[in-house]
Write a structure and sequence with these properties.
Blueprint lengths: L3 E10 L2 E4 H9 L3 H8 L3 E4 L6 H16 L6 E7 L10 H10 L10 E5 L5 H14 L7 E10 L12 E11 L4 E11 L5 E2 L7 E2 L1 H23 L17 H16 L3 H10 L11 H16 L2 H10 L5 H6 L6 H15 L10 E8 L3 E9 L3 H6 L3 H6 L2 E2 L2 H10 L18 E2 L8 E2 L1
Helix pairs in contact: 1-2, 3-4, 6-7
The structure holds 3-hydroxy-3-methylglutaryl-coenzyme A.
Length: about 450
């Protein structure tokens, strides 16, 4: 069977940044370490006044098509995953295609365009749709362009405010991909939940603490479902485990949950038993509460072991590097985590020996659904990852003062929509120039 997967990636960050420990924390009267150590965040990305989900997505897609030398005729499908859409009818992919058609000779009339919604997991769902379309043989040799783009803003004063971010990840899904092949095995955990939702409102209503429990519960179910088709996951067979990263502190918890889960009934559990005992079995406890208490104690002990800390440092920590400096990008977040992991592999000097290695990808969206699947690294991975210009983009972000941050927040609040001067100058890119005239390029 021909491999199908991700052939190329481009990342586009919002051009502004908010320094959480030095600018945000003092004005909130909070200890900076709550952000850096607790949540695991340094800075958040924000869109300048002429950026939005369309411009960030279109700019990422343009660089991707240019770099790969791809013409519109070679793209058969454009799917945008977002939870920041401003149009209840026209999908954001039509706005993005409109931008791209200004700069290419061809057009995307032949391309099937859509918008995928299921909170943050929809970026992965759009990739799954593209995979299925290619596997079904309906792509006529064409590639799918998948763009995950969001401005993840919360109401001012909401506890989620510290986790904000904005950016887009564009991905090309093809046969014989250069970066990763997607496996056919997937596992899901899905349930109607109301801890994070945006019913006809721009900013989410969030029960932050509950949202963390729901994330972990759905991830556990997805892992169980995945193992039922793919077999048990041996921790040492996973090179990296990129998870949806609303903030790195969440993935610190998810990593521990996942490790506990995948090591039960394995030689790793036997190896750890002398030091921390065996994992609690539900059948040995009189109530669910007593069992959960025992699990919690086991995980506290597990967290302190060299075995777990080594696995976390090698497999999870490297996936958090970009998230730490950009915040939550909602639909793009897990795809940034994958990119962080692969950048880490480049830094380690890996090349051909990394081909065939496995990524265990955990996607999650509030509302709520988790998906676990695995991916296999392909021979062109290093060249593709080295082509990313994300370091340059991050280094050139404008550093907002707190007052400027409050203005930027209002610019991107549809209810307020204040007029504020741009902080940076557009440079050969798509810019937002006002409703009805929004597909312009400077
Ligand atoms: P909070 O209540 O302000 O923070 O907001 P906290 O008091 O819980 O502190 C956060 C962490 O910092 C804690 O760590 C503290 O101990 C630690 P933990 O105990 O959990 O390991 N801390 C400190 N550490 C060192 N020095 C200090 C210090 N002070 C505190 N001085 C909350 C946290 C997550 C609730 C908030 O940010 C929030 O509401 N975020 C938005 C919701 C969210 O991100 N949920 C995550 C799961 S749901 C999800 O991922 C889906 C999502 O992406 C949306 C989608 O799918 O579309 C959100």
């Amino acid at each position: 069977m021909t491999a199908v997967g991700i052939d190329a990636i481009e990342i586009r960050t919002g051009k502004l940044q908010l320094d959480l420990p030095n600018t945000f924390a003092p004005r909130k009267g909070e200890d900076p370490e709550k952000y850096t150590k607790g949540l695991g965040l340094e800075t958040s990305s924000f869109p300048d006044v002429y950026e939005d989900i369309v411009t960030m997505g279109a700019n990422a897609a343009k660089r991707l098509l240019d770099r790969k030398g791809i013409e519109p005729d070679e793209i058969g499908r454009i799917d945008v995953a977002t939870e920041s859409a401003f149009d209840h009818s026209k999908p954001v992919s039509t706005y993005i295609a409109g931008c791209l058609e200004q700069v290419y000779d061809g057009d995307f009339r032949h391309a099937n365009k859509g918008e995928r919604k299921f909170a943050c997991v929809s970026g992965t769902q759009a990739i799954d749709d593209a995979y299925n379309w290619i596997r079904a043989g309906r792509n006529r040799g064409r590639a799918a362009l998948v763009i995950a783009t969001d401005t993840a803003l919360y109401e001012r004063g909401d506890p989620g405010e510290a986790t904000q971010g904005a950016g887009a990840v564009a991905m090309l899904v093809t046969e014989d991909p250069s970066i990763v092949e997607l496996s056919t095995d997937q596992g899901y955990g899905s349930m109607d939940e109301t801890d994070f939702l945006k019913p006809n409102q721009q900013f989410p209503s969030v029960d932050g603490k509950r949202s963390m429990q729901v994330y972990l519960a759905r991830m556990r179910e997805a892992l169980e479902d995945y193992e039922s088709v793919a077999g048990a996951v041996e921790p040492d067979t996973v090179a990296y485990a990129p998870f949806h990263t609303p903030f790195p502190g969440m993935v610190r918890k998810a990593g521990l949950f996942a490790y506990r889960h995948i090591t039960r009934n394995t030689p790793v559990e036997d190896e750890l038993a002398d030091a921390i005992g065996r994992q609690p079995r539900e059948a040995d406890y009189e109530s669910r509460e007593a069992y959960e208490e025992a699990i919690s104690e086991y995980m506290d002990a597990l967290k302190g072991t060299d075995r777990y800390q080594g696995w976390y440092a090698d497999t999870i920590e490297p996936t958090l590097e970009l998230s730490r400096v950009v915040g939550n990008w909602y639909t793009g977040s897990v795809h940034l985590a994958r990119a962080s992991a692969l950048r880490h592999a480049v830094e380690r000097g890996l090349d051909e020996e990394f081909v065939g290695e496995r990524l265990l990808v955990g996607s999650y969206g509030s509302g709520a659904q988790a998906e676990i699947h695995s991916e296999t690294v392909q021979p062109g991975w290093r060249e593709e990852i080295e082509a990313l210009d994300v370091d340059e983009q991050l280094a050139s972000r404008y550093d907002l003062s707190f007052e400027e941050y409050t203005q930027v927040h209002e610019v991107h609040d549809y209810d307020k929509s204040v007029d504020v001067e741009a902080f940076t100058a557009p440079d050969g890119e798509f810019v937002f120039t006002g409703w009805g005239r929004m597909n312009e390029r400077t």
